[in-house]
Amino acid sequence: MPPDPNPVWNEVFFFPLRLPPICEEIQLAIVGGTKVLGTATLHLSQISSAGAELEEGTPGFLPCFGPTFLPFYGPRPDATRTPNTDIRVAYRGRVLLELSTHMGTPDGRQRDTISPEDIARVQPHLPRRRFGLCGVFYSATMVPPGPELLRFELSLGNYGDTSDVTCKPASSVTPHGCPLFDGNRYHYLPWYGDKPVVAVTSSWEDASHRWDALNLLGAVCRRLVSTHGWWKGW
């Protein structure tokens, strides 16, 4: 039987982490047999905080992440790639995971199953909505010389990826073009007045509740910075 394109593990892993950590990141990998299909990295500086050094400073927080989807990237599966060409990196999948940190002595466990309550907690956030992305390419300059025709591709995950047969084809690539010499050192694509337009329609979980909070905090920060600068100049 072919491998499952949407595997479900529902497992929890336990591993010790010393604080303050001596490492900068946590790297995760999807392995098929003996081959690494894709990797993802969680930077501890982005998911934790040591807090302020002063006694009355802002308290920090232990590493935490999710539950949310984490994308994985790896070598692009291209059977036509020759040994002399560069290895292209492509989207290889994503994993719904959560990372939480607890103080104390590990009890020796390394693996366990996720409780049904935790599985039900994320179900309301899994229904999907359709999203559209449109891109306009204005110019392509400083292109290295070469005999091959060039084109650009816009993709979201595996949507728009011309090498992925699991999604419907989309107008996600620009027409092939032959680079022209700019008379100095580099080459460019002669698009002139014809600007290529590409579009990708994809389906993802609705995370607008997180975007709204992030956008609101960003707007408040920009407003405070501009207000502080106005008072300082005044």
Automatic annotation (TrEMBL):
Keywords: Membrane, Repeat, Transmembrane, Transmembrane helix. It comes from Hemiprocne comata. Its main location: membrane. This is MYOF protein. GO terms for cellular component: membrane. GO terms for biological process: membrane fusion; plasma membrane organization. PANTHER family: FER-1-LIKE, FER-1-LIKE PROTEIN 5. It comes from the Eukaryota. It is found in: Membrane. Coiled coil: none annotated.
